[in-house]
Amino acid sequence: MTNVLISGASVAGPALAYWLRKHGFSPTVVERAPSLRTGGYKIDIRGAALEVVERMGLLEEVRRHSTDMQVARFVDAKGRQMATMSAQLFGGREGDDVEIMRGDLGAILYEATKNDVEYIFDDSITALDETADGVRVTFENGPDRTFDLVVGADGVHSNVRALAFGEESGFVHDLGHHISIFTVPNHLGLDRTEMMHPAPGRSAGMYSTRQSADAKAMFLFTSPADPYDRKDVDGQKKLLARTFADQGWDVPRLLDSMWDAPDFYFDSISQVRMDRWSSGRVVLVGDAAYGPSPASGQGTSLSLVGAYVLAGSLAAAAGDHTAGFAAYENDMRPFVEENQKLAEGNLKGMVLKSAGQIRFQMGMLRLMPHLPGKERMIKRVTEPIRKAATAITIRDY
Fold first, then answer.
1. The FAD-binding domain covers which part of the protein (predicted)?
2. Rg of the chain (C-alpha set)
């Protein structure tokens, strides 16, 4: 039985472990965090990824955890409503698309795999030594072990990728914007509602999903000119506070809550672009290999489909990992490229450069319900997303 070590227990890792186990492999998942990560932000599952989740028998459970968001409201600096739109259109969703909290999806995948998959928490990989018949793995806390294959499913700043391919500077491409998300008290009493306050070069928001007692604050802004330390959380909070210091609406209260937030997240909006996703017996999946950035709205779907295709390709190759990795990349790369194209176009509408652009966008949103041909206008928004989300055929393995 082929033993496979997977680094990362978010979405791609447990999903891959599920499919590897189905195909007769023996997967082990190692996660740096001391326990399963909870919380996180809203994510979408669309197109081909929905078919993968359905084949896992988890679609009904995923739908039960839907955010059930209803409306997005845009407000000015004094909190006055400028425009509204449906949550479906705001998120670019249509038909059977599902929005779920990242932590909820992670918990569902973990529950589906925990009885058949070995999970190691509070540990990480520090070295990979490939031999003729396996990879000797050195762990930060546990003893060395040898595996037939190693998979990096550990996100944009992948540790496995750094060990096997080199520093991330050659693979992680900043799209010129940053994002921060964290939990805050629901002081506005939001119920399945998203509030957004746009300003030139930056946008602040807050939302609360179904059955959630608290809310999430979200900040998007043009990347700072000065460099910052990705591991200096306090410095990141200070940078965010400076960037939004003079913004109105409820931004001051959201920033006050930031200092004690239990789940502060701050990062560049970046894409991972690589010429190859495997090296010897090491392969990457999900954001570690081809993260399309939060601006694409497709990171989770790529992770779910990538996990399915990688496991199936290895199974079809009957033990030949070189052939399996090649088939995985051959099937996935066109799908990845189609979805990565969404990011930069989406960013233009998420962070507007001038007050004039904001006035124009708000005016169009107010007029849209009354315009002839509004259905065609809406389709122009959702069609590129639908096309990208279905740009792969889910084959049987």
1. 2-338
2. 21
